[in-house]
Please model this.
Amino acid sequence: MSLLILKNGAVSFADFLRDHAKWLRGMQWIIVAAYAFLLIVPALLPLPGRTASVFNNLTVFAQFAFWGIWWPFVLVSMPLMGRAWCGWFCPEGMLSEWASGHGRGRAIPKWMRWGGWPFVAFSLTTIYGQLVSVYQYPWAVLAVLGGSTLAAMLVGWLYGRNKRVWCKYLCPVNGVFNLLAKLAPWHYKVNEDAWRHPERRTETINCAPLVPLRHMQGASDCHMCGRCSDYRGAIQLTPRSPEAEIVRVANGDGWQTALIVFGLMGLAVGAFLWSASPWFVVVKQAAATWLVNHDVYWPLEQNAPWFLLTHYPEVNDSFSWLDGSVIVLFIVGAAVCLGGPVFLGLWAADKVLPPLRMPGVKDSSGAPIAKASRGIHDMALGLIPAAGAGVFLGLSATTLTLLQHEGVSIAWASALRFGVLGLAMLWSMRLVWRITSSRTASSGSRLNALLLVALGTIPYCVAWALFFAVW
Ligand code: SF4
Model:
């Protein structure tokens, strides 16, 4: 009964969204105005002094709005609501679609369809953000967010017609949102029979993020705009188990694995941890000593422009070339040292399980085709809750720092952080356990695989424990 109410409510809500697209667009323009204001105006103001606070300084307010609230809670919204952020609120996606409606309408080039962009764009943006201190300085925010928005508009203007080509292929967080939305408890479900025999709504609709509607199986690519609600009488917003897409649809691939394992569980952790790590200081001092002993001084100079490395001498905060190099080394090192064991754990788990059977696909002898490599990738999807929780906790560190600066006690934060990470790890292990059931019925083999995956995540957990409790 309650499921029926939920289902009917979801359908009505999706129809409401579909029928009020103009309201949605109006709200998006208001968000664009607020976004542009918080992006541009702080960059025109002097840097805030020591006593500046969220309540009396626009720059600090914008910092809190962007990095303390907006970014961490956009991430949280993905497993709760799917990519509703992208379809309802994102100023960048909306501007890209708007520009696409007034642009050249060219075909999407082949290079843009490369599957590695989500990983590469996320990695480069994460590293660049750290080099220019994007969480601290409005010019850096303008370079990172503003640059991304301009690129989104340019891509929209050049390619597609009323489409979100940027969001689909190049947005630096598209891959992360795509992964987290797999956990959403609702999605637009396609009824194949109804699609083949449509009774209503057969006129063409515009799915801006280019989702192949008929074959849509999950929530990963969908921006939840509602335009396709009831299309051909076949598509409905439908509640589902948050585990359904990962366990039943899966479809992991190498680039998604790279993003989960080396991106979210490696590189992103390094980006959050370097500034708190005593190891960073040790490596930097050792390198500086070596350089001085060899009469090489230029890497110690702090003369890089602000858009390459942090450079704000007026507040005594500038990076030398050595600082920048060691930051990159630390972040890439974290990707290898934390992501490497996770990947090894998945690889070993895949080895102790029988080869993956692809239902319905047979080889020439009539036996189901074994595709061991996708087995790793499907299992990696089970780590999405752990990886997503890590990124949320890292981002919320900025929220906590800003709250602390406002005089709010954060004594409760450690327990909450360990709790969130612990629950996310448990959820991930449960997902991996369920995924292994498609490989074998043997509980022993499944348990071995689960243990190997769990072992691989130990350095990742230790890194967060150091950050929360030791450093
Ligand atoms: S599939 Fe496309 S049209 Fe349908 S709700 Fe998602 S984004 Fe909108």
